[in-house]
Amino acid sequence: MLLVAAAPPAEDPYASGPVTSFSVVGDVSGLPASFPADMNLAQSDYVEQCGGCHGIKGNAAPADLPNLQGRVGWFMCLPEGRAYLTRLPNVARSRISDHKQMADLLNFMVFGLGGKSTPAGTRPFTAAEVAAGRTTAYTSVSLIKVRAQIVDKVIQKCGAPASLRLMYPPDAVRTALPLAGRARKAG
Ligand code: HEC
């Protein structure tokens, strides 16, 4: 009986290895192959600078902050949506001061974490675009209000799901649970 118990159950989602093996770099297929970018560096920059709040996979639900996984790419369909991403305080005033390095981080975010929400043919962020966002960074405005206006447009003009109005769609909580399970198992 002990021998049977020692074998991991076939359906064990954690049997494949520790969380450090996580990588979505292979999924950044929307990024033009000709675009020069170090996506490994971009991913570790994201995990270090943003993942603590947003989750390493861009899903922090049920924490009360916007889910990036599978939805942040919708903002790329409108110029003001792209600008919104570069003007966010945590982006514009990040300790990553190099514009190209931040552009790559954002490209990892939209092409990697955003997945199918990023429209086909989306132009990657450039250093110049990040620099421009920094000169018009949001400071005292109500981000909730700004976001609501942009999200309304993205829903109307680009066909984004109405759930983009929420911080995260209801099923995001379900996909967040395995990480919690992983932490329990490790601890
Ligand atoms: C201290 C926690 C924290 C850190 C670190 C952080 N964010 Fe955020 N982020 C938030 C919160 C809270 C919001 C929601 C409103 C706001 O911006 O204040 C947000 C909003 C966003 C949004 C808007 C998404 C939407 O649906 O409207 C994006 C994109 C984003 N953050 C990306 C990043 C990136 C990229 C980094 C790293 C460079 C980062 N964030 C670092 C907390 C954080």
Helix content: 40-55%
Number of domains: 1
**The first-level CATH class name:** Mainly Alpha
Tell me how many strands there are.
0
Largest sheet: none
Order of helices and strands: HHHHHHHHH
Q: Identify the overall geometry.
A: globular
How many whole angstroms does the radius of gyration measure?
18 Å
Provide the structure class. mainly alpha
Question: Could you tell me which ligands this complex binds, including any ions or cofactors?
Answer: heme C
Q: Which architecture name does CATH use?
A: Orthogonal Bundle
Give keywords.
187 residues; mainly alpha; Cytochrome Bc1 Complex, Chain D, domain 2; globular; disordered C terminus; binds heme C
Could you explain how this protein is built, in words?
By secondary structure, the protein is mainly α. It has one domain: Cytochrome Bc1 Complex, Chain D, domain 2, CATH 1.10.760. The protein contains 9 helices and no strands. The chain has helices at about 1-5, 40-50, 50-55, 80-85, 90, 100-115, 125-135, 145-160, 170-185. Helix 2 crosses helix 6 (about 100-115), helix 4 (about 80-85) crosses helix 7 and helix 6 crosses helix 7. The longest helix is centred in the C-terminal third of the chain and has 16 residues, at about 145-160.
Show the helix and strand layout:
Elements: H1 2-6, H2 39-49, H3 51-54, H4 79-87, H5 89-92, H6 99-113, H7 127-135, H8 143-158, H9 171-186
Helix pairs in contact: 2-6, 4-7, 6-7
The structure holds heme C (HEC).
